[in-house]
Amino acid sequence: MSKKGRVLVAMSGGIDSTVTAMMLHEQGYEIIGITMKTWDYAGSGGSKKETGCCSLDSINDAREISVDMGFPHFIIDIREEFGDYVIDNFVDEYLSGRTPNPCVLCNTHIKWSALLKRADAMDCEFIATGHYAKIADHNGRKFIKKSKDPIKDQSYVLWGLSQECMERSLFPLGPYNKSEVRQMAADFGYTELSKKGESYEICFVPDNDYRAFLDRRVPELANQVAGGDFVDISGNIIGSHRGYPYFTIGQRKGLGQAFGKPMYVTEIKPDSNTVVLGDVDDLIRNGMTVGGINIMKYETLPADLEATTMVRYNDPGTLSVLNQQHDEVQVEFLANVRGVAPGQSAVFYDGEDVIGGGIIKSGFMKSTH
């Protein structure tokens, strides 16, 4: 075994995970590549060709690079556990009137669990991925930090990692920009790989049509929820819709009818199959409740902790005051925030440091008088 240790590298066949393996290999680690088959899109009835980390082409690319660099490569099938947890949760959340974030669940509950299990079986001390993030230490506790590249930074989707996961994880790409990673691929001799595009879709919804996915997954859904009401902020019926699961907080387009002015989804009420519409300012919230929390940097949050809170991926963040109450955090925004969507992740930052995060339970307007 290498003096630096043995690393199990999650390889999708894309540029980021490939360069991760190359860098660690050059640094003297003993590398074992592993590719996880999470989803078979061809079996879902979708119209778009399977792409990204689950495609046969990507799996073959990962295997070829591993062979080329002289380290072993394995493929593991985790479709059953992925489907049972991530996809079932995805569907259940929409049926509950919330907007899920499957990438967070996949990272923290499926991929890392699968990687650690295989790492133990293969006597690997570490696991590594191509995420753009860093790991740091504070008073003996591990936490995630933002990467150098503000555009590619993936700290937001890693808030759920446990201390055990972070103790054994390596993120070699954290100190680099994407352009630098592309150049590294070219320098390693993989010119075509350095030009490879990126996929931003949910892996099991590569056509980006989650509504069609829900219909395929729950064939009777459209009939069960048909004929719901649009209501205004005062509760007056102003139209009808195809069913509450097909809408998300903040949605303006695709409402199915015109109202004479821009209208936004401000609330979803699954019990009555009602979707509340309002003006853009009706989306404003100055507080929220966050559950399912994972605090990284501290054992528990100090009282009245100031932090920058992101309520969605690529959100610039809002200065907030946090107060932890058992397994929930009450967040008071110090500036109004639009589009707080239950089901999405809320992530708390101290500068570049991820303090922790959780799942948004509800947003609210607290009187400022």
Describe, in plain words, how this protein is organized in 3D.
- The protein has 369 residues and is of the alpha/beta class.
- It folds into three domains: 6-130 and 172-194, Rossmann fold (3-Layer(aba) Sandwich); 220-278, Roll (SH3 type barrels); 283-364, Elongation Factor Tu (Ef-tu), domain 3 (Beta Barrel).
- Helices cover 26% and strands 30% of the residues.
- The protein has helices at residues 15-26, 56-69, 79-95, 102-121, 163-167, 178-187, 191-194, 210-217, 221-225, and strands at 6-10, 30-37, 73-77, 126-128, 133-138, 141-146, 169-170, 228-231, 237-241, 264-269, 274-278, 284-295, 305-310, 318-325, 328-338, 345-350, 353-364.
- The chain has a six-stranded antiparallel beta barrel with strand order 12-15-14-13-16-17. Strands 3-2-1-4-7 form a five-stranded parallel sheet, sandwiched between helices. A four-stranded mixed sheet has the order 9-8-11-10, with no helix packed on it.
- A hairpin with a 5-residue loop joins strand 8 (228-231) and strand 9 (237-241).
- The chain is globular.
- The model has no long low-confidence stretch (mean pLDDT 92).
Main sheet, how many strands, which sense, barrel? 6 strands, antiparallel, barrel
CATH topology of the largest domain: Rossmann fold
How many H/I helices? 9
The overall strand count is 17
Q: Which outline best applies?
A: globular
CATH class of the largest domain: Alpha Beta
Task: Classify the secondary structure makeup into a structural class.
Answer: alpha/beta
CATH homologous superfamily classification of the largest domain: HUPs
Distance between the termini: 65 Å
Strand order of the largest sheet: 12-15-14-13-16-17
Instruction: Report the C-alpha radius of gyration, rounded.
Output: 22 Å
Tell me the number of structural domains. Answer: 3
Secondary-structure element series: EHEHEHHEEEHEHHHHEEEEEEEEEE
Oligomeric state, counting identical vs distinct chains: single chain
Low-confidence stretches: none
- Helical amount among residues, as a percent range? 25-40%
Average residue pLDDT: 92
CATH architecture of the largest domain: 3-Layer(aba) Sandwich
